[in-house]
Specification:
The protein is mostly beta strands. It is 0% helix and 51% strand. An eight-stranded antiparallel beta sheet has the order 1-15-14-5-6-7-9-8, with no helix packed on it.
């Protein structure tokens, strides 16, 4: 059972490439192409269950290969080197697990010995060893363990009992040549590694048979049987399904001898049943999901019932496929030009389902991987595409940057690639990524990019300046154009509209603190920094609760609470012009102590086309005090000569809304400074080193300046830092500190 694949001229899938030594004994598939089951079996495998149920101690794995070619003495087992190899893969990761070595004698009809080898390093493959190296239970080179050994001879043509290899020659030939069976059997218990039974009924497996009889590394190979990922020994009274899919270049429209965009592929599917039971209610379904393939509608050819053959869906129904039977389906698909760079392959895979078997995927018979998609390599000539992006609008006199990406969507490289940017009047070159040549007369920027590989993208940027005297609303069209050897031009355009736009800003100033009932004055300046006049300029001051409008410069409209806004309609403000003004407000008597009032200016305007701009805002925060609130400043020299005199100055201010009573100012002198004199009346305590001023009551808004002179100790070391601290305390009208 299974599909025969000829590997005699290919790399050894177990070890890599090797110089092929043609075998004088070859597999016989009894099929003209060697890939599909012929009229007679080529390879048989069976599981012999001994007389003890559920006990593997008397069970055997039996393998039989059908061979044709030269049979020396009619009973040849080994050929020139005297070895046959059968590799067994049990987990579909390469032939890394087991190897059966049939060690024959040249020109003899009897094998000398049979070995079962196991690879104990999963990163390596089983390595052939010479007969002299193999002894029972020997560890060979760290990657191979001899699990089982049986000595010859084995009788020819006799029933298998305890003899483990035999040759049968009484086999009809497919093509008139000599043919024979090579039989080998292994006890199932031999597949036990470290107490773990690696092979038993239900284990998925694949087989690779080397009939070239060469023990070199890598093995010389001949053919491989693909048993798919299903148990190798299961109920024979069921369908055994295999679905192959091949792709043929049907229409080579560009006559390049390879699959390319615009060509047409024909997919051929063969669904075969090698089981003993017919497949029933069979459905073949193929959704062509590869974005680079398009089904040719109505192209399905089959003996089944066609349900779907449009819209990239193929569905065919069969009532049944008998034991040993097969059906075929074919359809055509056009290769589309890839919309993604770097695509070098198109792939397709269908599925076969039914009422009495497990669904299987179609398989590419030209590869050793089971149930893999059918892949077709594409050859795509170089085809370049370019994108270009930039701002939709730009101010006259400003710099703007365009970005773009050049991509080769082909699989072959593009040579002599030249990219040219044709700048319109109104744009001049400033700088760019990559090396560019600017021709100011032609107003072009040229990049010599050389070779761009298949699937490769190159990103870049270009900065240009918009002319100062460009007319408002002018559309500047910037064109990229790329050519390459045998192709082009491919182009991309970006349009930008030039604007002589007004751009207004506002600066606002005002007091940081205030008192209830006081008048506050805010000032501000409005400036047009843009390249064109600003029309319908409107300035709005949103007064917070707690402030009431008194007066302003220019003509303002006051909308009292609850709106509480002051509005100036300023008309037109030319480019570069400024307007300064002021606004006076009064603080309400009900504002709580410590409240921060935020006054917000905002401005809106239009350009010559009536397009709106703004708002642009500016705010000032003012903290309102009703209780007394004292602040103090202090200044003095940063450096002083030891032994000299030093004078500190300062100002005490009541920024609150009521008088401060019992005001006491204390100066804490550090060691090294001694009091000399001061403004106002002070008391010096030499023990605590403090100077105290009893200032009495300080009215709201009153500021008291003063000074104190001290002597610097002449014995102070150079670089001594002297820190002098002023501290002030006071009470409000209720006597609260």
């Amino acid at each position: 059972g299974g599909i025969i694949s000829d590997y005699e001229s290919s790399a050894d899938p177990s070890r890599g490439p090797a110089a092929v030594q043609p075998a004088n004994t070859d597999i016989s598939s009894c099929s003209p192409n060697g890939y599909l089951p012929g009229s007679q079996p080529s390879f048989l495998f069976s599981y012999y269950d001994g007389s003890t149920p559920s006990n593997i101690t008397d069970d055997y794995l039996a393998l039989r290969m059908r061979l044709n070619g030269t049979v020396l003495e009619q009973r040849q087992v080994g050929l020139d080197s005297g070895h046959w190899y059968i590799l067994i893969d049990i987990d579909n990761d390469g032939w890394k697990e087991f190897a059966i070595d049939i060690d024959g004698t040249v020109n003899s009809n009897r094998p000398d010995r049979v070995y079962l080898l196991y690879n104990d390093l999963p990163t390596n493959n089983v390595t052939p060893r010479s007969g002299a190296q193999r002894q029972n239970s020997d560890v060979l080179g760290g990657d191979e363990i001899n699990l089982w050994y049986a000595a010859g001879p084995a009788a020819t043509g006799t029933a298998q009992t305890n003899n483990h290899v035999r040759v049968l020659t009484a086999t009809p030939a497919c093509y008139g040549g000599s043919e024979f069976w090579l039989d080998v059997q292994m006890p199932i218990t031999a597949f036990n590694v470290g107490g773990v039974q690696k092979l038993e009924p239900g284990t998925p497996a694949r087989f690779l048979c080397s009939t070239s009889a060469s023990a070199v590394d890598p093995l010389q190979k001949d053919w491989m049987l693909k048993v798919l990922s299903v148990p190798i020994f299961s109920d024979p009274w069921q369908p055994v399904v295999y679905a192959s899919k091949t792709a043929t270049l049907l229409e080579d429209n560009d006559a390049n001898g390879a699959a390319s965009p615009g060509d047409v592929l024909r997919y051929d599917i063969t669904i075969s049943n090698s089981g003993l039971l017919a497949m029933t209610n069979v459905i073949f379904y193929d959704m062509i999901s590869d974005p680079n393939l398009q089904l040719v509608d109505g192209s399905v050819v089959t003996t089944g019932t066609i349900v779907k053959q449009t819209g990239n869906e193929v569905e065919v129904h069969f009532v049944s496929i008998p034991s040993g039977g097969s059906v075929t389906i074919s359809f055509r698909a056009t290769i589309l030009f890839p919309q993604t760079p770097g695509v070098g392959v198109v792939s397709n895979q269908g599925q076969v389902s039914g009422s009495n078997f497990t669904s299987v995927l179609t398989d590419d018979p030209s590869t050793p991987t089971p149930q893999d998609a059918t892949r077709t390599t594409l050859v795509i000539p170089p085809r370049l595409r370019i994108t270009k992006e930039g701002p939709a609008d730009a101010n006259a006199g400003s710099n703007i940057t365009f970005t773009g990406t050049l991509t080769n969507y082909g699989t072959q490289q593009a040579v002599d690639v030249v990219l040219v940017d044709q700048l319109p009047d109104g744009l001049t070159f400033v700088s760019s990524s990559h090396a560019a040549v600017y021709d100011s007369g032609a107003n072009t920027v040229t990049w010599q990019l050389g070779t761009v590989g298949g699937g490769v993208s190159i990103s870049g940027w270009l900065t240009v300046r918009v002319s100062d005297n460009v007319t408002d609303g002018t559309v500047l069209s910037n064109l990229f154009s790329v050519t390459w050897q045998g192709g082009g031009p491919a182009t991309a355009t970006a349009n930008v509209t030039a604007r002589t736009s007004p751009l207004l800003s506002i600066v606002k100033n005002g007091p940081a603190t205030g008192t209830v009932g006081a008048l506050l004055t805010y000032t501000g300046t409005l400036t047009n920094y843009g390249t064109g006049p600003a029309y319908n300029v409107v300035l709005v001051d949103q007064l917070p609760d707690g402030l009431t409008f008194i007066s302003s410069s220019h003509g303002a409209i006051y909308d009292p609470p609850p709106v509480n806004t002051v509005t100036w309609n300023l008309g037109t403000l030319n480019s570069g012009a400024s307007i300064s003004g002021w606004l006076t407000v009064q603080v309400d008597n009900t504002v709580p102590n410590g409240t921060t009032l935020t006054d917000n200016f905002s401005i809106t305007w239009e350009d010559s086309s009536g397009n709106p701009y703004g708002p642009v805002s500016s705010t000032v925060d003012t903290t309102i005090y009703t209780a007394p609130e004292l602040t103090i400043t202090k200044e003095g020299a940063a450096e002083v000569q030891a032994g000299s005199y030093l004078t500190f100055t300062g100002t005490l201010t009541n920024v609150g809304g009521s008088p401060a009573d019992n005001v006491i100012l204390v100066d804490y002198l550090p060691p090294g400074l001694t009091f000399v004199s001061s403004s106002h009346t002070a008391v010096y305590d030499p023990v605590s080193r403090t100077i105290t001023w009893q200032l009495g009551t300080v009215g709201s808004g009153v500021a008291i300046p003063g000074w104190v002179t001290v002597h610097v100790d002449g014995s102070l070391p150079d670089g001594t830092l002297l820190s002098n601290l002023f501290s002030v305390t006071w009470k409000d009208g209720s006597g609260t500190d």
